[in-house]
Design brief:
mainly alpha
Length: 75
């Protein structure tokens, strides 16, 4: 009977250790998702800003905006 109690105690300890590791993993994944969401929000804001600037650029040249006509800064 003592062996059974020790075996059950060992199994409970193993389950508690697993639970602790799973909680740590879940928290880590949650933190990662939060950082990714912040990055995505920033990128969406930047994209909205670029889209807002497209009509301004076209209007300043009095011609439709064509990305093929854009020269990269290193040229």
């Amino acid at each position: 009977m003592n062996k059974e109690i020790l075996n059950l105690q060992q199994r409970i300890e193993e389950l508690e250790i697993r639970d602790a590791f799973q909680e740590e993993t879940i928290q880590s994944l949650s933190d990662t998702i939060a950082r990714l969401q912040q990055t995505l929000d920033l990128q969406q804001a930047q994209l909205r800003l670029l889209y807002q600037r497209l009509p301004d650029k076209a209007e300043s040249n009095n011609e439709p905006f064509n990305p093929a006509n854009e020269i990269p800064p290193h040229y």
